[in-house]
Amino acid sequence: MADLRCPICVDSMLTKHSENGTDVDFCEKCGGIWLDKGELNKITHPIAGDLEFCCHENHQKSIITEHLCPLCTNGTKLVEAYFMEYSDIRIEYCKCCDGIWLEKGELDVINREIDALKEVPESLDHKIMVFLSKLPFN
Ligand SMILES: [Zn+2]
Ligand SMILES: [Zn+2]
Asked: How many helical (H) and strand (E) elements, i.e. helices and strands, does the chain have?
C-alpha cells in the first residue's frame, strides 16, 4: 500500500504507530492519527455501541474541510463533524472510505468522554483503581 499523506501537513507522510495494539497511521509532525474504518472502535476505551456510527450520525452539522482524505485518491475532502451530538469534540472523517482523522490529543479527549459516559455503578473496578492510585505508596 502506498504511503499516506497527512491531510493537515500535506508535505508529511504518515508512519505506522501502535495504539492500544492496533496499527494506525500517525503523523510525526502534527501528532494527528488516521484511522481506517473500524479502527476508532478498537483503540478507544471499550464501550457498548459503535462510536463511528455516532460520528456519522451528526453529519447534518458537518462542514467540508480543505483537508484531503489520505486514503482516497479521488480528491475526497474530509468532513468535520461533532464526535457526539452534545459534545464539542470535533473530528474529521471521510464520507467515501469512512476513515477518521483525529488531531493530536483528541483520542485522549474521546476516551475521557467515554469514561464519563461509563460513570455508572457497575464501574466499581474503575473506582477501586482510582482509590488505589491515590494511596501514598503508589
Ligand atoms: Zn501532520
Ligand atoms: Zn477516504
From this structure: 4, 7
